[in-house]
Amino acid sequence: MVNMVAEEVRVRYAPSPTGFLHIGNARTAIFNYLFARHAGGKFIIRIEDTDQKRNVEGGEESQLKYLKWLGLDWDESVDVGGPYGPYRQMERLDIYKKYWQELLDKGLAYKCYCTEDELKAEREDQMAHGQTPHYSGKCRNLTQEQIAKYEAEGRKPTIRFRIPSDQAVEFDDIVKGHVSFQSNDVSDFVIVKQNGVPTYNFAVVIDDHLMKMTHVLRGEEHISNTPKQIMLFQAFGWKPPVYGHMTLIVNENHKKLSKRDHSIVQFIEQYKNMGFLPEALFNFITLLGWSPKGEEEIFSMNEFIKMFDANRLSKSPAMFDKSKLEWMNGQYIKKMPKDAYVRFTLPYLIDAGLLPADMTEAQKSWATRVVLLYQEQLHYGEEIVKISDMFFNKNIENQALTKDEKKILAGDQVNDVISAFNRELKGLTEWTAEAIAPVIKTVQKETKQRGWKLYMPMRVVATGSQHGPELPEALELLGRDLVLKRMETYLDKQTAV
RNA sequence: AGGGCGUUGGGCAAGUGGUUAAGCCAAUGGAUUCUCAUUCCAUGAUCACGGGUUCAAUUCCCGUACGCCUUACCA
To answer: Are the C-beta atoms of A59 and A21 separated by less than 8 Å?
Structure first.
């Protein structure tokens, strides 16, 4: 109470490096980021690597790398340092030790000599009897003799927090509102593992306090950890941060997104590789469980920062809607400057082996025009491969016609149209869209066919598909030789019959 | 099983004690276009169910159902 000046907002994103950055992580990070930036506060990244068995190689690096890619930046972390480091929990072991020793000394924590197998058996027994799985409190009040006996057996203890009995633990959650737990429903949980490393629930409390966190926005799966953490804060006489538990992101089966869930693509890196733009992903993820005031849905980072309000976080789970993501990404693609769009899409064609990595100027300008044909409709980068297929897959002769295409070619005006078109095209001295367009008009006059009956036969014969970009430009880019060859092959077949 | 939380059209989601219950995605229909795409227009909700409080409830309260999270020497 000494300092009545408004406290600086400090929030953190605290991933465990057990995997790569996925949608759920990213969302947590984004909301914390927006919260901090909106308030003009600090955004910190802390690595929670206390579960060494599950840490994966490259996990930490991936988290930071793709957060950066999404457009986030941070004030304190393992890479940029800061006044409250270290920011990796395994480098803070000495710090934790001091605090759990304090709890032990005060009798607020105790050593537990139960083995994992014993605990597991206990839990299974409880379940079998329809009881809530709960630690029994067996080692709560061990005598010196018992302790000596366990030690003599060579058992290594864990340290458990002594949960105060008959206490209501309450807090006002930014998103859930007033939440209340009974301490009796929480069992004495382990704060230090047998190997001397603290558990998550202990380390967070120490770190959040020492790092002066003012708010904690995290996933709803942590809500039942909150009373444990609050009781620890109380044991130390510290003030807990303000909590906000965000709803989970669920899959089509309404299940929490898990890393093992393959029904939807989960990792940010995968989206990047498929050709989703960071701004679009950021925009989309931000709208998962949060909504702005007005009717707009597309926002820039700065707009989000300006309007972000944690009170508008939703209480009910958000389903990951892939088609909306694609739509949104498409919106961003449409807005790209042409040259950026070209630089963005060409690599997908190169990777697919459809274009050489070292293109000649001519190839490059051709590819540029092809790709530009699709800017209006592209949803994500990789889609260019499939969508522009007609310019790369040139063996349409071996390709079976669809029902509709057969129907188109069955029209009795088809031969007239094709032969007239073929004749007129052959007479062209210049093979450009500008030159081809008038030819279509000429054929129209000559054959008295128009619209669908005029265009469709030309399209199917020349491009192999009833769908595609504007015909004159498509034909130009397909190239004179190929188009004329296809026409003639077609006409030859007709006369042969 | 105990604890916690949720439920507005196919997916999100705004909002209110008395409203024509926003908007976006999707779907369908239509207009434009040679087609696809784009663009534009149009179409849909007894606000989970049952009870209460109230002149009035989708909005407040209680219950039920359903769903999810959690009850680890994981975070």
So the answer is: no
Reported as a single tens digit per residue, the pLDDT across A13-41 is 999 998 899 999 999 999 999 999 999 99
The chain-wide mean pLDDT, for chain A, equals 89
Name the nucleotide with the smallest C1'–CA separation from A53.
B74
pTM for the model stands at 0.91
Reported ipTM: the value is 0.92
Q: Which CATH number belongs to the domain containing residue A436 in this structure?
A: 1.10.10.350
Contact A50, A90 (CB under 8 A): yes
**Residue range of the domain that includes A192:** 92-246
Residues with Cβ within 8 Å of A364's Cβ and at least 6 positions away in sequence, in order, are none
**Spatial separation of the C-alpha atoms in residues A87 and A84, rounded to whole Å:** 8
For A101-129, write each residue's pLDDT tens digit.
999 999 999 999 999 888 888 888 888 77
In chain A, the number of structural domains is: 4
In a domain, A426, yes or no: yes
Q: Which nucleotides of B are covered by protein (CB under 7 A)?
A: 1-8, 10-15, 22-26, 34-38, 67-75
Nearest nucleotide relative to A118: CA against C1': B73
A223 touches strand B (CB under 7 A): yes
User: Within window 81-110 on A, which residues have Cβ closer than 7 Å to strand B?
Assistant: none
Whole-number Å distance, CA A191 to C1' B49? 44
Distance A398 CA to B30 C1' (A): 38
Place of tokens 């919260």: A35
Strand B contacted by A250 CB (< 7 A) = yes
- What does the pLDDT read at residue A2? 43
What is the percentage of chain A residues whose pLDDT exceeds 90? Answer: 57
Clarify whether residues A194 and A126 are in a common domain.
Answer: yes
Q: How many CB atoms lie within 10 A of CB A2?
A: 4
Q: Is there a domain that residue A330 lies in?
A: no
Domain boundary among A352, A372, A391: A391
